[in-house]
Amino acid sequence: MKGRLAVYLGTFDPVHLGHLDIISRGLKAFDRILVGVGNNPDKKTLLNLEERVGLMEKVVREVITEPHRVEVKPFSGLAVHFVKDSGSSVMLRGLRTTSDMDYEFTMSLANMSLDPDIETLFLMAKDIYSHLSSSLLRQIASFGGDMSKFLPPGAVEIVYKRYKELAK
Q1: Which of 80, 94, 112, 145 could cross-link 140 (Cys pair, CB 3.0–4.6 Å)?
Q2: What is the domain range of residue 52?
Q3: Which strands make up the sheet holding 70-75, listed edge to edge?
């Protein structure tokens, strides 16, 4: 499928409704979205890379209106290399708070230095998702909190199951 492609990168551990909202809204501006599920060695993840890719594929099929316009792939290494190798020149990022803005501004400047052909476009999180972060959601889940308000249904089961396994 040809057309305008944006690449949305993250760890997605776990994927939450804010992530899916960025994908849905990104599809209003782009013909396709490639979701790059990253392996960040600085982050300790709840789910391994294969599980996160599989979960993202599952929830995209279940939640996104036109899932055929979204592709999910694992990646490691520099984001700009992944974007360029995908055939895109656009990196899509979500912003929740001013602290996100500081971090993302720094990253976008670094990415421009690494590859000036890659543009970073930002979408502001909707207010109902602006407080969501995967780390906060992992903490809530670890204490048995209700995740159904934050995660798509397919993700809720998987996150609770993993915490039960860890508790053994």
Answers
A1: 145
A2: 5-167
A3: 70-75, 32-38, 5-10, 90-95, 119-124
Query: Catalytic site residue 19?
Result: yes
> Is 44 labeled as catalytic in the residue annotation?
no
CATH of the domain at 162: 3.40.50.620
The answer to whether the CB of 120 falls within 8 A of the CB of 108 is yes
- What's the pLDDT score for residue 10? 95
Q: Is 96 a catalytic residue?
A: yes
Tell me if residue 32 is catalytic: no
Specify the number of domains making up the chain.
1
Residue 2 pLDDT: 63
Selected catalytic residue, list 32, 86, 93, 134: 134
Q: Which two tokens stand for residue 157?
A: 């089961």
Q: Which of 16, 19, 32, 138 is catalytic?
A: 19
